[in-house]
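User:
I study polymers; will you set down one protein's sequence and backbone structure tokens?

Assistant:
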Amino acid sequence: MPVQAAKKSVIKSSSPLSPALSSMALFARNFLKSPAMLGSVVPSSSFLVNDMMNQVDWTRARLLVEYGPGVGTFTREILKRMRPDALLLAIELNTDFVEYLGDHILDPRFRVVHGSAARVRHILAEQNLAPADYIISGLPYLNMSDSLRREILGESRLALNAEGSMLLFQYTRTLLPYLESSFSSVKLNFQLFNILPALIFHCTP
């Protein structure tokens, strides 16, 4: 992976709204258009984001993959914590969010790709990237078909290196059997201060 000098993420907005209000408006608009793709009417709380970020060993994380970055709630925090020579690859199915992230997050360590998490290994190969150290997911798995859910989790396990981890949050324990069938170890934590209270899953191959 090429080493690139770190620069602070630059957030820009052509909207008369502040960046925060602009992103909230975009998120809400897309939730109303397709609620099943987002799973929640509001982005994740700072408490949930911090709990997820605390699961990452930032000293060794060189390649991180984010599923469903949306308006960049996790993305910005990942970039704040990442090594100068690390890379964050975001995979997003919603074209509005892909365009928003491409326009608003300007960091040489960040790439956003329009595509499905079910193709994560193919996307990594297209980007000439090795298996990931971490996959961080905000996808609403319970809104998916059973086959797609299994495909994404199976592909995710294969897209991680031997010491990699997948971190994701859900609002129920329903996904736990799927995770346990795909990963050798699944640890569970809980964050109350979120809308809705969330379960955090830390999965390793």
In short: Confidence is low (pLDDT under 50) at residues 1-18, 36-41. The radius of gyration is 16 Å.
